[in-house]
């Protein structure tokens, strides 16, 4: 029988960086090699609100070079003086910096098909070791008629003239892009590509500008262009797919299968409107299914840098990732349900297609799953063992019932909650203190004040009043005045459920060690042992006080 984890050949889960063939603008010496053109700094920056400073763009370009991209599309130099400065800095610095594998990335400046844009782009990139201009003009009927106000003949003439113009400036690596290619008439597309190749283009990108194309249609377009465009074998064919229907990655991968050997992607999939094909998804899909689905295609991306690059782009652009974003979202390697946790604990590959380390995620103990109402005994037992509790089956079964009851009330059962559940299970002490009454005064005038009445197990009542920094603080201080114990608050959390109508509070306390000179903030590590209490109700102060008293009773009942 085939072992379940053999779906991922072990060579591919390890960090093997494939050797990159030498860079020749219009030809890739290895037919299985796929170039990655990263356009985070150009199309990615077209995400509404994602504008970056030149320094931020430079930092990202450096990181993209470490990631191992072949081509960095650095920006649109004629769009503003700062953009020009950013592209120039990237060209001069990153475009001349030899990476660990001896490679220097190509730096691209993007330009419309006009002399001013092209001259400006060339001025910005020309000092890179491998400068490139990418010039575009729309070829679809709707764009030519309404946006450009030009006929096919005019567009064809401008495109050829501008490719030659770029070449005459001294640029020998020129990409031509027929914008809105997927809505263009195919015969016109073949014709314009034939002519711009004759004019000197070295690569051609086929953009699905408005993200309307199905994966099989995109694959057919790439195959048709290869079959019908004279001279197409003399250039590198590239994808450029937008995500308006959520198909950018699928279309890009289909484009590669159909023969495109440069893939244009962005980190985290950011870009104009719904974004572009996500770099991490494209690269890892190729890596995971290199032989099964892609006939051996490979990239030179050092996947260990994926997470770091993703975080940097998220921070600089302010484009926050949804938790369930493939590969780099906060939940991408976190298991919530019991059946999954059980399988994952037995063998990671039951529910993970790659190891998170492969993209640079360092997962420590306790990470990889969260406990909640959908968890089972396997996840619960494992986390309790990680917290140092060894319970027998009867104890686990008993804790499990209370765990499920708590899970029904809270979104997430925390380590503090687990400690409280376990100590309920193993201490069984009769409560020493009970809450009698509680009265809180708070507002904007002066400090909060709480009066609390506690009742001991033999029925005597004790009342105290305290001010504090807020209602909960004054309430806990009033309790401390009564019980006269050296208590340290280690952890405090509340969860509101059902639109604020109900609140659950968890508190962890420890006995303050008077001999201990340390002034550091108390944590579960430096206050030993700790005791937890949980309470639920409609009022946050009342549930906080009840949780505190529950933890206090455990502390007082505890024998070393
Ligand atoms: C599909 C894509 O992602 S394309 C890239 C998109 N990126 C950008 O637009 C970069 C940022 N853009 C900018 O900073 C500005 O738009 C600039 C500086 C480029 C131009 O600004 P303006 O000169 O004020 O023109 P504006 O943006 O309003 O309109 C675009 C003009 O370019 C023309 N144009 C559009 N595409 C092209 C092209 N590929 N080649 C030549 N002209 C073009 C339009 O027809 C229009 O011309 P018009 O003013 O004669 O009607
Ligand atoms: C300029 C081109 C490459 C583009 O961004 C598009 O068509 O989406």
UniProtKB/TrEMBL annotation:
<feature type="domain" description="Pyruvate carboxyltransferase">
    <location>
        <begin position="34"/>
        <end position="307"/>
    </location>
</feature>
<dbReference type="InterPro" id="IPR036230">
    <property type="entry name" value="LeuA_allosteric_dom_sf"/>
</dbReference>
<dbReference type="Pfam" id="PF08502">
    <property type="entry name" value="LeuA_dimer"/>
</dbReference>
<dbReference type="InterPro" id="IPR002034">
    <property type="entry name" value="AIPM/Hcit_synth_CS"/>
</dbReference>
<dbReference type="GO" id="GO:0003852">
    <property type="term" value="F:2-isopropylmalate synthase activity"/>
</dbReference>
<keyword id="KW-0028">Amino-acid biosynthesis</keyword>
<dbReference type="Pfam" id="PF22617">
    <property type="entry name" value="HCS_D2"/>
</dbReference>
<comment type="pathway">
    <text>Amino-acid biosynthesis; L-leucine biosynthesis; L-leucine from 3-methyl-2-oxobutanoate: step 1/4.</text>
</comment>
<keyword id="KW-0479">Metal-binding</keyword>
<keyword id="KW-0100">Branched-chain amino acid biosynthesis</keyword>
<keyword id="KW-0432">Leucine biosynthesis</keyword>
<keyword id="KW-0808">Transferase</keyword>
<dbReference type="InterPro" id="IPR050073">
    <property type="entry name" value="2-IPM_HCS-like"/>
</dbReference>
<comment type="similarity">
    <text>Belongs to the alpha-IPM synthase/homocitrate synthase family. LeuA type 1 subfamily.</text>
</comment>
<dbReference type="InterPro" id="IPR000891">
    <property type="entry name" value="PYR_CT"/>
</dbReference>
<dbReference type="InterPro" id="IPR054691">
    <property type="entry name" value="LeuA/HCS_post-cat"/>
</dbReference>
<dbReference type="InterPro" id="IPR013785">
    <property type="entry name" value="Aldolase_TIM"/>
</dbReference>
<keyword id="KW-0012">Acyltransferase</keyword>
<protein>
    <recommendedName>
        <fullName>2-isopropylmalate synthase</fullName>
        <ecNumber>2.3.3.13</ecNumber>
    </recommendedName>
</protein>
<dbReference type="InterPro" id="IPR005671">
    <property type="entry name" value="LeuA_bact_synth"/>
</dbReference>
<dbReference type="InterPro" id="IPR013709">
    <property type="entry name" value="2-isopropylmalate_synth_dimer"/>
</dbReference>
<dbReference type="Pfam" id="PF00682">
    <property type="entry name" value="HMGL-like"/>
</dbReference>
